[in-house]
Amino acid sequence: MEPISRRDSLKYITLASLSAGALIACEPGKEGEMTGHEHPTDMPEGYANLTPEVMEMLNQKFFTDEEREMVRVLANQVIPADDKSGSAEDANVTAFIEFTLVDRENMQTPIRGGLRWMNLESTKRFGKSFTAISEGEQKQILDDIAYPQTASPAYSQGVAFFSTFRSLVLTGFYSSKLGVEDLQYMGNRPTVWNGAPQEWLDRLGVSYDS
Amino acid sequence: MSAFQIKEVPEEYDVVIVGSGAGGGMSAKVLTEAGAKVLMLEAGPHFDSSKGDMFKWNYSSPRRGAGTKERAFGEFDAAFGGWELEGEPYTRTKGTEFDWFRSRMLGGRTNHWGRISLRFGPNDFKRKSIDGLGDDWPISYDDIKPYYDKVDDLVGVFGSKEGIYNEPDGNFLPAPKPRGYELLVKKACDEIKIPVIPSRLSILTQPHNGRAACHYCSQCNRGCSTHSNFSSPSVLIGPALATGNLTILNGAMAREVTTDKEGKATGVSYVNKADGLDYHVKAKIVILAASACESGRLMMNSKSTVHENGLSNSSGVLGRYITDSTGASRSAIIPALLDGIPHNEDGVGGMHVYTPWWLDNKKLDFARGYHIEIWGGRHMPGYGYMWGVENSNKHLKSPDGTARPSGGGYGAQLKQDARTLYGATVGFSGRGESIARYDNYCEIDPNVVDKWGIPVLRFNYTWSDHEIKQVKHMQDTFEEILTNMGGIFTGAKPGPESNYGIAAPGRIIHEVGATRMGNDPKSSVVNAYCQAHEAKNVFVCDGGPFVSQADKNPTWTILALSWRTCDYIIDQMKQQNL
C-alpha cells in the first residue's frame, strides 16, 4: 500500500471521503455492518445523520403549550442575548430541553413539577402565572431560588428545580452552534499541532525551552 | 419447532480465533501471513472506523453527544458495548462488586481505548520477588522485549526516551508538544519532584507503514477515518484480510471449545446471531482472544469427560486471579487558566504528557504503583458542559472584585462566567496496579444463562487494603499538585467513607487474569507461551494469561504476547508438534 501523504490526508478529510479503502476493501460479506447511523432523508434543519429512533423522539411532545412557553421565558432569563451572542431562544434551547426530557425519563417529574412550583409561587405573590407577570416580578422570584448557597430554606424546592433547569439551559446553549461560537472553541477540524500560541504560554509563564 | 441440532460447517480451518480485538487481530495477522487458513469469530457486527462519527459537531444531534445505553461513552463514540448488554447478563456474589465491560464489534475495545501504549517493565514480571505478593511471571522482560519492539515498529507509538528502568523506552515516533495547561501541570510537578513526561500513545505523529499522520482533532474515541491511531481493524485485520487467508464471521457468539477423547480441541461451537442457529466449525488450533473473562467463561463452559472441570482446569485455577486497575480522579479550577486565550488545543486524542509511577514502595504503606493521566483544556462543548455551574462560579469574583456569597445565578453575569470558566479545569486520574489474588475470581453461575442458553459468569471481587491505601495516596497526590497550581476545588476530597473514591472493579476496563500463565499446571491455566496446559492446541491471546497487572494499560502487552504466542504456534506447527 502506498503511503498517504499528510497533505493528501488532510485533503481527503475535507472531502470527507478518505476511507480505509485500501485496508478494508477486501472484507467479506457486508451483512450486519455497523455504520454508526442510518440516514433518513427528511432531516430537521441543523441536524445530521439522526437515527430513525432519534427522529421519532424529536417529534414527540413532552410539554404542554403553556409549559413550553414558560420554559422559553425562563430559559431566556438564564441566557439572555448580550453584545456577544444570542439568547437561549436563539439557540433553540426549549427544543433541546424537550428532547432531553423525552430521552431521560428520570428528569421529567422534577422539571414538570418544578414549573408547577414556579407557577404556584408566582400566583401566591402576584396573583398570576409566571409568564403573565412582569420581567421584574419574575426576577424577584428568581433571586430567591437562583443562589443555592444563600437561599432561604423556605425555597429549597424552587432552588433544586432551578439548579437542574439552569444546568439544562446552559448545557443546551453551550453545546449549540451559537454557544460553541460564543466560547470560541476553535477545533473539530484537521490541523497541524505545533504547540500552544506564544501569547498563551507567556501568560501562563511557561515555555517549550525548559 | 424443528428438532434442535448443531450444523457442521463444511470447511475445516487451520486456526479458529474467538475475538477480534488486540489479541485476536494480532493472531490473525501473524498466522495468516504465515499461510494459515484462519476463521475469526466475532460476536458483534463489522466495523470500519472510516465510517465513524469523526468531525461531527455535538449539535448535529439533539443528544449533543451524550452517552446512550448502547454507547456508554457518548453517542458518537466508536465503542459499541457497555457494562450491561441486552440478553447477556452476569452476576455477582453478594457483598462483592464487579462491573464487566464487553465490546461487541469488529476490533473490540481497541476501537475506543485511550491508545495509552505502555510496556510493562522488568519489575512488572517479578513482583513476588520484590514484595512477596502475588506471583512472578514465568517470563521476563527480556523474553517479551523483542515483541514490544516489533509492535512499536508495526503499529507506531509516540513517546520520548527517558531511561527510566521500569518504564522501558520503545521505538518512538516524535511526541506532540504539551498543551498550555499541561506545561502548567509539569511546572507544578517539577517543584514537588513528581515526573511529567511525554505520553506514549499509539497515534501517528508521522506517516507510518502506509497510514497517514494524525490531523489533531482529538476524536480518537470516535474512530479515526484516516486510521492514524491504533485499532485492530485498522492495523491488524486489514493486512490479515489482504493475505486472502482470513475469513471473518460476524455475529458469531462462541459457546464452547469441543475436544476429542485425548482432550485436544477439535473446534468451536457457536451461535450465529443472524439465523439464531447453532454451528460447529473444525480447526486444528483454537485461539481464545475474547477478552480475559470471556475466554475464561468459554473454557469453563467447555466441559468433557477429559476436562470435567472445564477446559484445562484440573487445577481449579481457571477464572481466578482476575484484576482490574485501581482508579480515582480529582479536578480543580486553575485560576491561571481563567479567561483563557482562544486557540485550538484539541491535539491528539488524549493527554500529551503523563506521570509514570515514581516512588519507592519500601517507604509507603501499600504495594505497587499507579500512573497519573492528566486532562483539561478547551474541548468541544457537549452534553453535560456547565452542568452544576453553581458549584464552580461561586469561586469566581464578583464584578466589583469581592467574593461571591453564592454560585449559580442567571442572566448576563452567568453568561460571562461560562466564558471565564471554559478550559480552566484541570484533572487527574490515577490508574494503579491491584494485586492478583486467588480470592478474586469469576466462575459459572449455576442458575443463570444468557439468551442463547450459555451459562454466564458470576464475579467475586473485593479490593484489599493495598488498593484502598494506594487510592488514598492518589488523592493526596492530586490534592498536592492541584494546590501547588493554585487550584480551587469544586468538590470535597473523597475520604474513607467512599474508600477514597476508588472506582468499582471493572470500571477501568483493564481486567486481566482468569487464565493465568505459569510453569506449574497445578497453579496456572496456560504455559509461558499461553498454551493450555491440558489441551496443547488451545492458546489464549488476550489479557487472560497475565500473572499480574502492572500500573500500565494492558493492550501493548496483549499485542506483544499474542505475537510471541503465534510465533511459537508457527514453530510448533513446523515441528509437527500441534
Can you walk through the features of this model?
The complex is a heterodimer of chains A (210) and B (578). With 210 residues, chain A is an all-alpha fold. Chain A has helices at residues 6-14, 21-24, 52-59, 65-78, 93-103, 108-126, 135-145, 156-174, 177-182, 198-204. In chain A, helix 5 crosses helix 8 (156-174) and helix 6 crosses helix 8 (156-174). The longest helix of chain A is centred in the middle third of the chain and has 19 residues, at 108-126. Chain A is globular and about 65 Å long. Chain B is α/β, with parallel strands linked by helices. Chain B is 20% helix and 18% strand. Chain B contains nine helices and 18 strands. In chain B, strands 1, 2, 7, 8, 9, 10 and 18 form a seven-stranded mixed beta sheet that branches. A six-stranded antiparallel beta sheet of chain B has the order 6-12-13-14-11-17, covered by helices on one side. The longest helix of chain B has 20 residues, at 465-484. The mean pLDDT of chain B is 96. The interface between A and B is large, with 95 and 100 residues.
Q: What can be said about this structure in brief?
A:
The complex is a heterodimer of chains A (210) and B (578). By secondary structure, chain A is an all-alpha fold.
Q: Which labels suit this protein?
A:
heterodimer, A: 0% strand, globular, B: alpha/beta, six-stranded antiparallel beta sheet, 18% strand
Secondary-structure map:
The complex is a heterodimer of chains A (210) and B (578).
Chain A: H1 6-14, H2 21-24, H3 52-59, H4 65-78, H5 93-103, H6 108-126, H7 135-145, H8 156-174, H9 177-182, H10 198-204
Helix pairs in contact in A: 5-8, 6-8
Chain B: E1 6-18, H1 22-33, E2 38-42, E3 81-82, E4 91-92, E5 102-103, H2 127-131, H3 141-155, H4 180-191, E6 197-198, H5 232-242, E7 246-250, E8 252-259, E9 265-272, E10 277-288, H6 292-300, E11 326-333, E12 353-355, E13 370-376, H7 412-421, E14 425-432, E15 441-449, E16 455-460, H8 465-484, E17 488-489, E18 538-540, H9 555-574
Parallel strand pairs in B: 1-2, 1-10, 2-7, 4-16, 10-18
Antiparallel strand pairs in B: 3-5, 6-12, 8-9, 9-10, 11-14, 11-17, 12-13, 13-14, 15-16
Helix pairs in contact in B: 1-5, 1-9, 3-9
Cofactor (chain B): FAD
Domain Glucose-methanol-choline oxidoreductase N-terminal (chain B): 213-302
Pfam family, one (chain B): GMC_oxred_N
